[in-house]
Amino acid sequence: MAADSPTDYRRGFDAAAADFDALGRHLWCPIGRATVAATGPRPGDRVLDACCGTGASAIPAAHAVGTDGSVDAVDVSPPMIDIVHAAALPQLHGHVADVVGWTGHGYDVVQAALGIFFFPDMEAGTRRLIGMARPGGRVGFTIWRRGAMEAPGEHLARAVNTVTGAPVTKRKPHLIDKVNEAEPYAAWLESLGLAEVSVITDDRRLDLTEDLAWLIITGSGYRSAITGLTDDQTRSVRDRYLATLAADGITEIDATTLIGSGTVPAPE
Ligand SMILES: C[S@@+](CC[C@H](N)C(=O)[O-])C[C@H]1O[C@@H](n2cnc3c(N)ncnc32)[C@H](O)[C@@H]1O
């Protein structure tokens, strides 16, 4: 679910915020909790949660660090951060910012669930995040495993094409396509200087109802593909999308992630 244009995905995520939160129960929250289980924030820790969305990993991290710790939850989307603020935890601080340019540093834990592949330069952005952790600090990045969440995108693109004539374009080659299996992902994280790297495959399947199939579109980055359509066009896209999913016998979606984590080596 990497996007070609930063502007497109930002518009999509801003529009998606309420449905994104509704999809959280099915998708973002269990993945966020699994991410926090891997990064392991402790009471009193300072945590940076990059690309925090509505707080799927930031909120469990805030519970883990308690009121003696703090979590900076950073996202470019203001409506997402409004929802983070609604959690009303004193140790959880939401910020609207491009996290690649964030100047905070010395964090005990830096984590990003399903965010790093949106950076215009994924490798440079990820290096920047690693640089925000203290020596000896823990870092964790969650990405989709190869093939995960692809079926909704393919069926949506075909439906939009049928309704509007917009061409079905293939996403440009992207670093994520090279690292979205456990072994290359671990090797890539090591190449960024992390030690004690571990990659957990978090197997996850979503049983599809029609409502959930459509929520996956309206509550995720896929929303950018329908932003700007008229209500009639959107209804037609929804009908066509659900019809082709059913015709292809798709009753569940692969939502498996790779949770990569490691430590920042202390200087000798
Ligand atoms: C798929 S969502 C994941 C959100 C959250 N981590 C979760 O797991 O529910 C990706 C998020 O990354 C944010 N994002 C993308 N690029 C960003 C950047 N450069 N700085 C801050 N946030 C960014 C988007 O606005 C969006 O909320």
Walk me through what this model shows.
The chain has a domain of 187 residues: Vaccinia Virus protein VP39 (Rossmann fold). The protein is of the alpha/beta class. The chain is 42% helix and 21% strand. The mean pLDDT is 94. The chain binds S-adenosylmethionine. This is Trans-aconitate methyltransferase. GO terms for molecular function: methyltransferase activity. Pfam families: Methyltransf_25 (PF13649).
Q: Topology of this protein?
A:
Elements: H1 6-24, H2 28-39, E1 46-50, H3 58-65, E2 70-75, H4 78-86, E3 92-96, E4 107-113, H5 122-131, E5 133-144, H6 150-164, H7 176-179, H8 182-191, E6 195-202, E7 205-207, H9 210-218, H10 231-247, E8 252-254, E9 257-263
Parallel strand pairs: 1-2, 1-4, 2-3, 4-5
Antiparallel strand pairs: 5-9, 6-9, 7-8
GO molecular function, one term: methyltransferase activity
Organism: Microlunatus parietis
Keywords: Methyltransferase, Transferase
Characterize this entry briefly.
The protein is α/β, with parallel strands linked by helices and 268 residues long.
Summarize model confidence as the mean pLDDT: 94
Number of helices, counting only DSSP H or I runs of 4 residues or more = 10
Query: What is the CATH T-level topology of the domain at 6-148 and 172-207 and 256-263?
Result: Rossmann fold
Low-confidence stretches: none
Task: Report the span from N to C terminus.
Answer: 39 Å
Which term fits the overall shape?
globular
Which strand order spans the largest sheet, edge to edge or round the barrel?
3-2-1-4-5-9-6
Query: Into which percent range does the helicity of residues fall?
Result: 40-55%
Note the main sheet: 7 strands, mixed
**CATH architectural name of the domain at 6-148 and 172-207 and 256-263:** 3-Layer(aba) Sandwich
The fourth-level CATH homologous superfamily of the domain at 6-148 and 172-207 and 256-263 is Vaccinia Virus protein VP39
Backbone structural class: alpha/beta
Strand content: 15-25%
User: How many whole angstroms does the radius of gyration measure?
Assistant: 18 Å
Number of strands: 9
Order of helices and strands: HHEHEHEEHEHHHEEHHEE
Small-molecule binders here are: S-adenosylmethionine
CATH class value of the domain at 6-148 and 172-207 and 256-263: Alpha Beta
